[in-house]
Each structure stands twice: as C-alpha cells, then as structure tokens.
Amino acid sequence: MNLTNKAVTLHDMSLRDGMHAKQHQITLQQMIDIATGLDDAGMPMIEVTHGDGLGGASLNYGFAAHSDEDYLKAVIPKLRQAKVSALLLPGIGTVDHLRMAKDLGVSCIRVATHCTEADVSEQHIGLSAKLGLDTVGFLMMAHMISAEQLLEQAKLMESYGANCIYCTDSAGFMLPDEVTAKIGLLRQHLSDKTEIGFHGHHNLAMGVANSLAAIEAGASRIDGSVAGLGAGAGNTPLEVLVAVLDRMGAKHNIDLYKIMDVAEDLVVPMMDQPIRVDRDSLTLGYAGVYSSFLLFAKRAEARHGVSARDILVELGKRGTVGGQEDMIEDLALDMARQEL
C-alpha cells in the first residue's frame, strides 16, 4: 500500500459518537475543552450533536445533559479554524433542526439513513444543499448490502444534492477487502466532484486498517475520534491513525503530539469506562449490529438477567437496524421467559 502524498481530511466524532459512550452527558466545558484542543491540533472538521444526531434527545435515545443548540452555541465561537458538522437522521431530526444548526454556524450537515433507505433523505439533503452547506449523504450499516446496492443508494443521495457520500461501518463488521470493494465502486461510478468518505468502528480492531484501505481505494474523508471515544469498542482512534498516516507519508495537517495530548489529557480522564475491544463490543462487530445498541443491551442484561452477548447475537440474526432500539427490551424479556 502506498499512500505517500495522498491528501485526506480527518473528521472527529468524539463529541457526537462519543456521546453514546458517555450516555449523552458530556458537559459544555468538556465540549469546549476537547473541541478547542482539536482545533489547536489542526483538526479540520469536528462533529457536535447528541449521539443520535440533531433532535436525538428523547425517551427513546436518551436525554443529553444539554440541548444540541446549547452545545453548538458553546463550541462554535471558540474555534479558530475547524468547521463543525451536525448529523441528522430524517425522522429524528427535522428541517427546523437543520435550519437551527445552520444559523448557529454549522457548515456541514451529514444526513444519515440506513444503507437501503437513501430515498428518505431527499428533503434534508436538498435543503442542506440549497442553504449552501457542505452536504453529506451518510449510508449506515453498509456491510448489510452489496457494493452494487450501496452504489445505487449513493447515486440517489448524489442526485438529491450531496457533495460527499459516506460508506459507514456502523457495526465495525467490515474487513479491508470489503472496504476496498465498496469505496472503489463508489469512486468509480460517482461524479469526480463527489467526495467519498469512510466511517469505521473498532469492534474487530480494524478501524485503522479499514481507514487505510478506504483512502487507498479513493476516500478523501475519514472519520475517527480521539482515544476512540465512541459507541461499542469506539471509533477509529484518530491519534493512532494520524501516527500511521505520518509513517506512510500521507497529507493530513494534524499535529501528532497535540492530538495525542488531547486524547490522553482530556478524553481518557472523562471516560466512564475504558473504550476497548471487550467481549461485548467484539460481539457487536462479530454479529454485525449497531455499536450504539451496546448500552441498551447492557441495561437489558441488568434488568432481565439475559447475557448482553446473547441479545446482540440474536439482534444480528434478525437484521435489526437503527431505530429499533425498543426491540432490545422486548427481545430480552422473551429470552428471559424462555430461560425460566
């Protein structure tokens, strides 16, 4: 693999995907400290919202310590060069949320759908593009369909106005060959003007390897989070990825020592538990289920005495997708009854 002089834009997820690991309780001061630390390290893009995106604060997905509006108001004025993005899942986030984010200075909207449901993104992608925002189509759980099917969905998002399309390994299930095949096909058939991105989770410890495969195959935007703070075993650890990219001669404009310090001095001390590949997060990757399901499965385990590992594997067999978190409780109850 030769990534010498390959340019890549890194995008930090610790203040959005990291919200899952923190049960959405990151404080405003922690948001500011981490965001300004990343800004100083040269991180070009930082995502800030509830873990489930704009409008995610709810009984279903968990209430955050503060509103999306409060987080964005606290962080954006403090940044010198980094741009802030916001995730939006149609059905959770609305066009009003999108306009609010734009008015507060968000420059990038990432409209996320399950990998087979790009058609529900038309309204939000269209509005974001019309407002002149950097508009991303974010296809989640991309391991569940073929490269050809993913391309069909990507073309829909591109036709709605997205200027960047993401292949998203929400479950940390993919291996490098699959990433290469899917990113390569998107790069081959989407417009040259459309950027390609990759978002990986680390449940099979493949976050860095998969990100490198994505860059080699044509992705120019790569997501990750400092110290891997994120759902499941976390996102691709950015300070590790930066070190590897340095070794490979890729261009990313991040100060390695500064991002290492943000990870070690700011993010690790605020973790509720070590973000690592433990048996639960490994099960997430092995079973191919949403990383954000882990805390729901752990709660169900505590309430009903059914192993979170067994719950996650069964969810994988059933092809459960994001938005079906309420099924975890029902499934745990059914499994508990069967064990009586």
Explain this structure.
The protein has helices spanning 18-21, 28-41, 68-75, 95-103, 122-130, 147-160, 176-189, 207-217, 238-248, 256-270, 279-287, 293-304, 308-317, 326-339; strands spanning 9-12, 45-47, 83-88, 108-114, 134-140, 164-169, 195-200, 221-224. With 340 residues, it is α/β, with parallel strands linked by helices. The protein has two domains: 9-270, Alpha-Beta Barrel (TIM Barrel), CATH 3.20.20; 279-339, Helicase, Ruva Protein, domain 3, CATH 1.10.8.60. Strands 1-2-3-4-5-6-7-8 form an eight-stranded parallel barrel, surrounded by six helices. Helix 2 packs antiparallel against helix 10 (256-270), helix 11 runs parallel beside helix 13 (308-317) and helix 12 (293-304) packs across helix 13 (308-317). The longest helix is centred in the last third of the chain and has 15 residues, at 256-270. The termini are far apart.
Instruction: State the CATH superfamily name of the largest domain.
Output: Aldolase class I
**What is the strand content?**
5-15%
**Oligomer category:** single chain
Distance between the termini: 54 Å
Briefly note the structural class of the backbone: alpha/beta
Radius of gyration: 19 Å
Fill in the keyword field for this structure.
8-stranded parallel β-barrel, lyase, 2 domains, EC 4.1.3.39, 14 helices, single chain, Helicase, Ruva Protein, domain 3, 340 residues, PYR_CT, 4-hydroxy-2-oxovalerate aldolase, alpha/beta, 45% helix, TIM Barrel
